[in-house]
Amino acid sequence: MVQMSCDVLQVSYGVMLYHISCSDRCTFTFENVNNKTVASQIQQWLRPYLSPGFLSVHLSGVPMEIRDLLRFRHCGRTVYTLDGPAGLWCPVCGLAVRLGLMEAPVRIQIPVGDGHRAACCFLITSRHGVPGFSEEKESELHVGISNSEGVVFSYTESGVQCQQEGWEQSIIVPLIDPSNDSLSFRKLWDKQLETYSHLNTWTADRFQEEREFGSCCYGFALSFINHVMRAEGRRTISSECFTSQYIIPRMEMTSRYLSVYQHVRQHGHYSTAE
């Protein structure tokens, strides 16, 4: 889909929105578009819209806002939409919808959140944004640990990074039991995370070393979690256990959500038999 204003074009492709601004040079510049197929497709779409005032475009990819879905039941099916039964008409059967209390639409929240607003959590993000969590897209994932202020610590080839932005679209795994959450505990968490990140174990020159928990960023995060658990006198958790209990279920749920969401955006609704 292409939308044009006096000096800006907007192109939506899948679940990504690309903003295009114009200049006076007859060239295309694609920024932050890692998929060459997408860039080529968008360029083809743009050609009919270009005029002397649109000789040059600069393309930068930004995540399209992904909204919550609404789920309701009608005509023997479970229906997912973005805005509910529009005008009280079912998008499946076309009949009027009369929903009682038990059939009222339920909001299904997007399983991705702002990691900088999630205190003391394990975070998973993707260089491709939310679409990178889809099973249909191969994407490099990165993990980190947030402190009580939402600063994210992660291990990279440059050593441990402390970031206040860049994790706005993350799968979030809370790490603090609500019964154990307190200001004093959060202060202790921050102190331990800061100290742990400065250990010689996590310097840039040791990035390629074999790690107990596999990939380097994952090894850093899970090692810190076990460090805290040891300090509390609790049993540590293995990579296999943490992955199967906390990572895989959230990844699968996010992938399913994206699959349904993309179908809804393309067709207006998605439905399954009850």
> Average pLDDT across residues?
78
| Cα-to-Cα separation, first versus last residue | 33 Å
Number of helices: 4
Class based on secondary structure composition and strand pairing: alpha+beta
Share of β-strand residues: 25-35%
**Global Rg:** 23 Å
Shape: elongated
Unreliable spans are 1-36, 50-64
Helices and strands, in N-to-C order? EEEEHEEEEEEEEEHHHE
Biggest sheet: strands, sense, closure?
5 strands, mixed
Number of strands: 14
* Arrangement of strands in the largest sheet: 1-2-3-5-4
What share of the residues lie within helices? 25-40%
Question: What does this molecule look like?
Answer:
Pfam families: DUF4796_C (PF16044). It comes from Seriola lalandi dorsalis. Residues 105-264 form the MKRN2 opposite strand protein-like C-terminal domain. This is MKRN2 opposite strand protein-like. By secondary structure, this protein is an alpha+beta fold. Among the domains are: 9-47, no CATH class; 115-237, no CATH class. Helices cover 26% and strands 27% of the residues. It is built from four helices and 14 strands. It has a five-stranded mixed β-sheet, with helices on one face. Strands 12-11-10-9-13 form a five-stranded antiparallel β-sheet. The chain has a four-stranded antiparallel β-sheet with strand order 8-6-7-14. The two termini are 33 Å apart. 26% of the residues are buried.
